[in-house]
Amino acid sequence: MISLDKKIPDPASAVAKRMIEYGKENELFILIPASEKKEINLSDTVHIFSTGGNRIQQYFRLKKMGLELIRKYDIKSITTQDPFFLGKIGWWLKKKTGSTLEVQVHGDFFGSDYYQATIFWKIKIFFAKFVLHRADSVRTVGERVKQSLLKIGLEAKKILVKPIMLNTESTSTPVFTQERKSFVWAGRMEPEKNLSFLVDVFSVVAQRKPESKLVLIGEGSEKESLQQKVKKLNLENSVTFVPWLSNPIGYIKNAQALLLPSLTESYGAVAMEANAAGTPVIMNDVGVANYELKPSDKVTVLPFNDRERWIQAILKI
After folding, report:
1. In the chain, what's the furthest Cα-to-Cα distance?
2. Torsion angle in degrees (nearest 10) through CA of 112, 118, 124, 128
3. Do the domains spanning 14-161 and 178-316 agree at the CATH topology level?
4. Does the structure show a pLDDT above 80 at 192?
5. For residue 87, how far is the Cα from the chain centroid?
6. Distance of CA 246 to the CA centre of its chain
7. Closest Cα partner for 248 from 174, 299, 194, 163?
8. How much is the average pLDDT of 131-138?
9. With b meaning 16 or more CB within 10 Å and e meaning fewer, what string describes 142-155?
10. Among 35, 106, 164, 238, which one has the highest count of C-beta atoms within 10 angstroms of its own C-beta?
11. pLDDT one-digit tens code per residue, 53-93
């Protein structure tokens, strides 16, 4: 496996636990591009190797280390976390060794307008299509992405849908009380998560229902600007930031609703976890919405950035 996930070497992380489970079926060798070179065993059958070096060195070391591991351990199959930088390396290793190549697709890159907005993404998607059409199989997490892959000409028999294992056991203690339940969002604070829109929506909600509270759980490049926006809108008593949690289900179970205003999602495991926990979900039409998660009395699917409908949906809870 070639992966970008820096949490894999942490035995306490959810992704490390998934890797250990995968290792029970087949011995797993994981290559990760990173500035520091390391070798770690998560279990007797799950081995991690990080490349060390700068970005250019990491690219060449991934190829060299991958080739050495495949030949040394007679590895029969390669899987890459994405069809871009890693997918290209996987395709090169497949050509050199004859191993089969599985490419994972964890974003709706071919069906979401979000990824068609810049020349940079259009070029990435062009090369991703090249890799995907040459892979032996393509794995994704949900039906929405599968439909997008079919539209770019991949055969259905080549696509495997394998949902993410859900976290349904609580390991976190909510900071709010039952008397003042909160609305919750959890994930990576990045532009595609559309959190600035959510703060704008909640500024109106807080005016109409001052007792309402929003908890934002996670880290990311937008956290600081979001904190500044909350301060500018005088929402410090209504919006709380909680650091990243590997398992936020304790907050989700005690929430009035989970809010997911993302502009794009390949799946949206947090929405599935909330639904499994019995917590209402309000979300944009992305990921599992209208596929694995159908609209119901506890699932509300809304059009993109329809501010008034988002406000009304939250106020109804």
Report:
1. 65
2. 20
3. yes
4. yes
5. 18
6. 13
7. 174
8. 98
9. bbbbbebbeeeebe
10. 238
11. 999 999 999 999 999 999 999 999 999 999 999 999 999 99
Sorted by where each begins, the domain ranges of the chain are: 14-161, 178-316
| Tokens 């294992």 sit on residue | 165
- Which CATH architecture does the domain made up of 14-161 adopt? 3-Layer(aba) Sandwich (3.40)
State the CB neighbour count (10 A cutoff) for residue 181.
18
Q: In what order do the strands lie in the sheet with 214-219?
A: 239-242, 214-219, 183-188, 257-260, 281-284, 299-302
Alpha helix (H) ranges present in 209-254? 223-232, 249-253
Cα separation, 308 vs 312, in Å, equals 6
Alpha carbons 129 and 103: distance in angstroms, whole number: 11
Give the range among 77-86, 113-122, 128-137 with minimum mean pLDDT: 113-122
Burial status of residue 199 (CB atoms within 10 A of its CB: 0-12, 13-18, 19 or more): buried
How far apart, in whole angstroms, are the C-alpha atoms of residue 236 and residue 227? 9
Q: Which residue has the tokens 């029970």?
A: 24
Residue 165 has pLDDT above 80, yes or no: no
Residues forming beta bridges with residue 46, ordered by sequence position = 28, 43
Three-class SS state of 308: helix
Which whole-number Å values give the CA distances from 317 to 97, 180, 207, 257, in the listed order?
Answer: 56, 13, 16, 7
* Bridge partner list, 185: 216
Looking only at the bridges linking them, the beta strands covering 183-188 and 214-219 are parallel
The matching CATH number, chosen from 3.90.550.10, 3.40.50.2000, 3.30.70.940, 3.40.50.1470, for 178-316 is 3.40.50.2000
Kindly state the tokens that stand for 241.
């930031």
Asked if residue 168 lies in contact with residue 277, where contact means CB atoms within 8 angstroms, the answer is: yes
Burial (0-12, 13-18, 19+ Cβ within 10 Å), 31: buried
